[in-house]
């Protein structure tokens, strides 16, 4: 198995260019890679293309040129069946807004992906309870999202993203909605779970605190990824 979990090669992404909409080149022949168990922090101001980059890396955007490799195998980004299968098996997502299902408890929210993949409920519940206890929510697992604080909801979202142990986690401003002390706690839990489960990760943020917690820092500039 390749020791590179994600590799982007000569990726070019262009917006606009039709009618009166000006042509904007977001990425120009960009190369990028993440090794096994490596956590990369991506720090660029809003509007620089962080979310677009994560959508390409996460196989959610197929409108680009260039190549993507996951675990050493090339992925046809325009083949919806292939990308959804690769995504489900290999990639977890944490967004700024947690997107939890309001009618479900915290535990039900995080075991949903396992049940969807056919795991027996008893095993899924055991895994889910273990994760929630790890992030300090052992006594809140029956609560619905509306009964949890913002930081607690984001911890549930993190557990949901990693419960099926993806090889790659993509986090887009995962603490963007939280105050500084809650950010610190949530990020500590996130990094701890990533390391414990041997997950590679890209954490996009403009919070400088996060730069001290990752293995490598990068930024988007002039259509490329530059390492700090």
Structure report:
With 228 residues, the chain is an alpha/beta fold. The protein has a domain at 39-48 and 80-227: Rossmann fold (3-Layer(aba) Sandwich), CATH 3.40.50. It is built from six helices and ten strands, in the order E-E-E-H-E-E-H-E-H-H-H-E-H-E-E-E. The chain has helices spanning 50-57, 80-90, 106-116, 121-134, 150-162, 180-196; strands at 4-15, 24-35, 39-43, 65-70, 73-75, 91-94, 168-172, 200-205, 216-221, 224-227. Strands 6-7-8-3-9-10 form a six-stranded mixed beta sheet. Strands 2-1-4-5 form a four-stranded antiparallel beta sheet, with helices on one face. A hairpin with an 8-residue loop joins strand 1 and strand 2 (24-35). Helix 3 packs across helix 4 (121-134), helix 3 packs parallel to helix 5 (150-162) and helix 5 packs parallel to helix 6 (180-196). The protein is globular. The protein starts with a strand and ends with a strand. The mean pLDDT is 85.
């Amino acid at each position: 198995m390749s020791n590179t979990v994600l590799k982007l090669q000569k990726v070019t992404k262009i917006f606009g260019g039709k009618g009166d909409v000006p042509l904007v080149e977001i990425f120009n022949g960009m190369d990028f890679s993440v090794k096994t168990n490596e956590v990369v922090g991506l720090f660029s101001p809003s509007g620089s293309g962080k979310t677009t980059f994560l959508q390409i890396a996460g196989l959610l955007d197929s409108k680009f040129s260039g190549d993507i490799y996951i675990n050493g195998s090339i992925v046809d980004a325009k083949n919806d069946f292939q990308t959804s299968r690769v995504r489900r098996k290999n990639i977890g997502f944490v967004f700024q807004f947690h997107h939890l299902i309001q009618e479900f408890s915290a535990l039900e929210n995080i075991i949903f992906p396992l049940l969807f993949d056919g795991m027996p409920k008893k095993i899924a519940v055991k895994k889910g309870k273990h994760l929630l206890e790890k992030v300090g929510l052992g006594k809140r697992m029956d609560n619905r999202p509306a009964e949890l604080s913002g930081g607690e909801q984001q911890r549930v979202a993190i557990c949901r993203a990693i419960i099926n142990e993806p090889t790659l986690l993509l986090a887009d401003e995962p603490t963007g909605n939280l105050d500084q002390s809650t950010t610190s706690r949530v990020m500590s839990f996130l990094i701890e779970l990533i390391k414990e489960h041997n997950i590679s990760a890209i954490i996009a943020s403009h919070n400088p605190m996060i730069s001290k917690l990752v293995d490598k820092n990068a930024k988007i500039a002039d259509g490329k990824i530059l390492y700090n």
